[in-house]
DNA sequence: ATCCTCCCCTAC
DNA sequence: TAAGGTAGGGGAGGAT
């Protein structure tokens, strides 16, 4: 399943402006499409346009025609970030300048950005889908791929029923519509979503793929943009059908390169072998400012580089990583480009330069980043007044795990030289110890296949969150990481270091061992061992059996009986008492999935069960398990 | 032969 | 007034 919010920014904006529903609406910074007449702007726009055209021969990008069309000097150059479907009927498109859009539709209404709103809706979107499955690949704040194979199998729903259900749930909770596409691979699902929009769904069935693909314009294939379309058009191909008819892999590869050529050839047939990536790891962190760069002094320039260094380092620290590579990117006013740009404080026509640092530095502090950035900039010998854009990118990232951090801090304090000596080998400095441990973490990543912390990562990639409602959720996910994964690393450490750390941090030896044992023995549901504590009728049963019992219970009983609920609640409480957190998590997800689609009486069963879980959790851990499920609209009182 | 750097292209 | 930024894939050609 591919799922995508419909004109996301507009939909979020309309929540606070319901009066504008059904009208042509656009999200922009500017409020009006008309600006004060300024004859001097005219010459600048003409000059810039000529230069753009010279640099992009034949490439009639919408932006250039925008500048041309608005050469009356009265039109706003504020960009449209997102526009409603009503606005699209007038020919308005995302990325278009407001001035031109207003000419197409004088009645166009504008709304300002609402970044808090995007964050909120995005978080709900991801949490909602994640309450059914964690097999999610995030694409952006409003778009993702989901493997729904298990959901369909477990619930018995058809593709259509499931699509309807999830879209309705998202609409109900967020007030924003989305569309979903289904297919045998990510390409088919994605193209299906295009047809589904707005506020719809479409299942591209295997038997329909060939006919469907033939009509698809090549530019609609993911990965095929402006430049590639130009090349393909020159070859005489406009649609996938035409390409398959008259082209070949060889021709494509000769024109577009080996990889892209092969990919387009396969895509044209509806083939896409790339699997979903549920556990994406960041490869770079960067920060870039290409607006409003007009330095008056060299000091100003250095100060800015310094603050950007701090910013990019903050972002690196937030995802708990460190970097070994750095690239500086500069936009420089092109020769012949006007010093004052057509767009107020825009970067205008520029040359772009990137320069990587080749030294073997670990960027573990903002000052180190700044020093390197300044060094590269000075060497490039570019006048500060010519700068129009600056970017710093950190690459060659490495994960710093929680336990490694603790270990690092601990070793840095230098409590005992012996501890250092006892580490892996005499040549190791602190950093190398950390490295080895990190490698182990990654190698053992997610051994159970049960709990993937995709959602933490997903959200962290898009929103820096610290104080909002999902911070607790993230916190708990991290806690799981410590219990389930980092403990593995801990156990690999030499005994001397282990005992030192435990003393230092007052870690209860027994609890560490228990948690570790639990996390190691838990296997996927199909092969779960028997539950230990002989306390309930379920005690000798595997999770798989219990799951089946619950399914038939739901099917056969019109009403849940109190006795049954009590038995189930006991079982869950004992899972918590036995520190079987991973099974618990699976249980809770399963129950939510089952009970949420039933009536309110069953919702109450769910709530009772979760209460039992939390009782057990509080008894054993003094903390509650963070179970993030949407509340049931029919029983809002809870 | 393979790696690295710079750059282009693309998505959203 | 007006306000992209962030990330990834991959190719060309030099460096190793």
Structure, described:
- This protein has 638 residues and is of the alpha+beta class.
- The chain has six domains: 17-111, MutS, DNA mismatch repair protein, domain I; 115-204, Alpha-Beta Plaits, CATH 3.30.70.270; 212-268, DNA polymerase, domain 1; 285-398, 2-Layer Sandwich (Dna Ligase, domain 1), CATH 3.30.1490.100; 402-521, no CATH class; 525-635, DNA repair protein Rev1, C-terminal domain (Methane Monooxygenase Hydroxylase, Chain G, domain 1, Up-down Bundle), CATH 1.20.58.1280.
- The chain contains 27 helices and twelve strands.
- It has helices spanning 8-15, 39-55, 62-69, 85-88, 98-104, 115-130, 149-155, 159-174, 186-196, 209-214, 226-234, 240-246, 249-256, 258-268, 298-318, 366-380, 402-412, 417-422, 430-443, 454-462, 471-492, 495-504, 509-521, 543-556, 562-577, 581-596, 600-621, and strands at 2-5, 25-27, 82-83, 109-111, 136-140, 143-146, 178-182, 201-203, 285-289, 321-333, 350-356, 387-399.
- A five-stranded mixed sheet has the order 5-6-1-7-8. Strands 9-12-10-11 form a four-stranded antiparallel sheet, covered by helices on one side. The chain has a three-stranded mixed sheet with strand order 3-2-4.
- The longest helix is centred in the last third of the chain and has 22 residues, at 471-492.
- 32% of the residues are buried.
Q: What's the topology here?
A:
Blueprint: E1 2-5, H1 8-15, E2 25-27, H2 39-55, H3 62-69, E3 82-83, H4 85-88, H5 98-104, E4 109-111, H6 115-130, E5 136-140, E6 143-146, H7 149-155, H8 159-174, E7 178-182, H9 186-196, E8 201-203, H10 209-214, H11 226-234, H12 240-246, H13 249-256, H14 258-268, E9 285-289, H15 298-318, E10 321-333, E11 350-356, H16 366-380, E12 387-399, H17 402-412, H18 417-422, H19 430-443, H20 454-462, H21 471-492, H22 495-504, H23 509-521, H24 543-556, H25 562-577, H26 581-596, H27 600-621
Parallel strand pairs: 2-4, 7-8
Antiparallel strand pairs: 1-6, 1-7, 2-3, 5-6, 9-12, 10-11, 10-12
Helix pairs in contact: 6-8, 13-14, 15-16, 17-19, 19-21, 21-23, 24-26, 25-27, 26-27
The chain binds a DNA duplex (12 and 16 nucleotides) through helix 11, helix 14, strand 9 and strand 11.
